[in-house]
Amino acid sequence: MSTTPSPLVGLLREEVLPLRAYVPDPKRPPIRLDANESPYPLSDEARDRIAQSLAQLSLERYPDARAFALRQAIADHVGGTWEEIVPGCGSDEVISTLMTALSRPRPGRTRASVLFPTPSFVMYRISSLTHGHTPVEVALGEDFALDEAAMLRALSEHAPNLVFLATPNNPTGNRFDPAVMRRLIEAAPETLFVLDEAYAPFSGETVSGWVAEYANVGVMGTLSKVGLAGARIGWIRLPLTLAAEVDKVRQPFDLGAPSQEMGRLGLTTLWPELSANVEAIRRERARVSAALAELPGLKAHPSDANFLLVSVARDLGAVMDALAAAGISVRRFASAPAPLDRAFRVSIGQPHENDALLATLSMLLS
Ligand SMILES: Cc1ncc(COP(=O)(O)O)c(C=O)c1O
Questions:
Q1: How many domains does the chain have?
Q2: Its pTM surpasses 0.90
Q3: What angle (nearest 5°) sits at the alpha carbon of residue 19, between those of residues 330 and 146?
């Protein structure tokens, strides 16, 4: 295998060169609490149901390019009509589709800009860069709330095409104040606000109805956090006429027939099982959070999501080593600015996994 640099490297968009491809840790520790997935495997009944449905598919044919049955199931779930839903291979692809569709620079500018708070979901920045847009990052304020004044300044200075607000936010876990979000949305009617509800099932709150209220709001969702990360199903609900434009950019066969069917089943027949698991995760979140509060030197920030951000007062390295030795993976943000560099993010696991986490931390810190 040749390792000489490609002669075509000069053709790459300059923002691509410094990026690193997403390579998950190849070590698969027994207790994986680093990716905000659901810790619950599907039941045998659910697996049988999926197997039966998938066996009926005509895999020699292309899938339904409209993904009609899936979009109808999503609309039944979040509100609106199926034409308002643009699906994708996970919300990652939806983000990319939006970046491609809404990419025209404002008059007098050479690039479109994309605004989001920081820290937040890393794909907003990466996708902005790979699409040649200018990412504009505004630091969150106290208790990880939106800094309304700074966001308003950035809206007026940069006139972004897109704003991404993950609520609840990753990796901080908190929801943003709906009144602040409304004021931002109303201040910039010519910017699309993408309200990313990847973790909303764990908060019990949704702003999905805002799509009917505002012409400049889309609400994004995914099945990745509620038990179907492997199926790669994401979507955005947009105002009807904008959805029709954005859908032109989506690859017609992005979601294969098995994915479309898995998504449909997830939102219908399998939904009672998935939502029972969401409830179990919420209960465990309360228990783990209370137990962490008893341990010296740790602060678990309040969370509406399926994970906790935990600040560590001293020797984060020793905490990471102890967790790794116990076979527990969590997410660290070593090169991030304060306060993230002194924290780790841990997904809520099954009760026995959470017990192992708490026992390890308690042994080290008590
Ligand atoms: C806020 C947020 N949005 C979207 C995603 C991506 O979800 P998907 O698996 O649907 O691409 C994540 C995944 O971590 C996330 O944290």
A1: 2
A2: yes
A3: 60
